[in-house]
Amino acid sequence: MKKSNYPILCLLASIMIAGCTKQKPSVVTIDVAKNGVEVPKGLWGIFYEEINRAGDGGLWPEMIYNMGFEEKNIPSTSYIENGEVVAPKKPSYASGRINDFIFYGFSPDNVTEGWSLENKGNSKSGMEVVSDNPLYKANPHSLLLKIDANDGGVNLINEGFKGISLVNGEKYNFQFYLRADKSYKGKVVISLVGKTGNAIYSREFDVNNSGTWTNYKSVITSNVTDNAVKLVLQFTSTG
Fold this sequence. Notes:
Strand content: 25-35%
Order of helices and strands: EHEEEEEEEEEEEEE
CATH topology of the largest domain: Jelly Rolls
Number of strands: 14
Distance between the termini: 26 Å
Number of domains: 2
Radius of gyration: 24 Å
Helix content: under 10%
């Protein structure tokens, strides 16, 4: 799900620097007696770094955490050591000292991070991330649900980036892909549940159980402002 009224323009820039055998030293000249460009009083600066969800869960308009089940992918040059992600040990450009970067708290085995499964009543189900029959080559993972018993409902829940934030009157594009086999004969009910526990939005979808990926989508107009919303997908059958 993404905010439809906050477009983001991504600019990809390629820079080619031609090598040469000789370079003249750079010269910087400062004239403190001369005024520069006037800075408007309303112009503010900001330091941006990908911490505290500034990008993923911030400027990025997608609102579902680990939406493609790719959150635990690591760069091919990195590796797992003692349960933590370790970056290649390379020398610093400035000092030559070997950098030793470790991404603490990454939990590489928690591949379903961001998602929880709720078995209501006497329901019994499980989930795992798989890579067979992917939707796209660039997005090879998907979440496999096996529902052995459904007595009261099986809910798949995502709380976004510490809560999904909706604004009253704003529109949001919602879509998901589902692949079900003949053993699943139910429907799927999509709900956005607010901090009070009440459904802000709910819609029932008929499920195509032919074994092929099917796209389900809707446009949601929020009637409340709530920053603690969670997405709930309720499955009504076994399979």
